[in-house]
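Allow me, if you will, to draw on your knowledge of protein folds for a short while. I have a record of one protein: its chain in single-letter code and its fold written as discrete structure tokens. I should value your view on which stretches of the chain appear to form regular backbone elements. Thank you for your consideration; the sequence and its tokens are set out here:
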Amino acid sequence: MEKFSKWMKNATQGDANATVSYDIQHVFKGDGEEIPVPSSFFCDPNWKKMAPFYIDYIEKHKLKEPIGTNIFGSYDNLN
């Protein structure tokens, strides 16, 4: 997560209101600008170890379908 946090801080110019999409495919700046997350983060061995915990959390705390799909991205893509 340290690498991701560094990347996100640089990509958003330190925007304190930046958020990450539900499927971790995009970062949204406070002004609504959408920044795609580089795919290299998903190929990292550490990410592959951490992803199951994140996916389990999402499964237990799913949002209503229109919110999860239209605002935060696709759970299926993450899985």
The chain has a mean pLDDT of 79. The first strand starts at residue 19 and ends at 20. The CA atoms of residues 1 and 46 lie 9 Å apart. Residues 2-74 form one domain.
